[in-house]
Amino acid sequence: MKIAVSSCGIFLDSPIDPRFGRCDYFVRVNMDDMSFEVFDNKNFDLDQGAGVQSAQFLISKGAKVAISGNVGPNAMSALSKGGVEVLIRHTGTIAEAVEDYRKGKLKSVTTASVREHYGMVGEAVKGHGRREGHADDEKKKSRYKAESRNGTGRPEQLAKGEVPWTAE
In the chain, at which end, N or C, are there fewer CB atoms within 10 A of the end residue's CB? Predict the structure, then answer.
């Protein structure tokens, strides 16, 4: 089963992003072997519809479960219609959220946790601004793209057969 988590970074030890439609990245984790793929959220700066577009993207990628810090009403509706179970987790890392899901510690929700346009400029959660604040992740992403092509990278990921970054 594939689980998608809104993320502030590109690794399983990255924190969960409190925004769904305007998160920086989506990390899709395969529950069978904990392999994962990272997707840039190309919808983060849309004037409207970021949640719905992000939901449709995850559905197209085969996600059956979505975990995020918050989900707005339009995204919740789109995810529900697409057959995606939604879980809210405000803190922790991607790996911790997936493990808690595996252990049954996260509860499914069917209603939005925030109002519309929650993650827009001026509405963002403290400490989680727009992309301009994530230059370090962009540098890491470039480095890990190169390292995954060269067969280097984080040893614990490579030992498990995980690729540190998989470009779409």
Answer: C
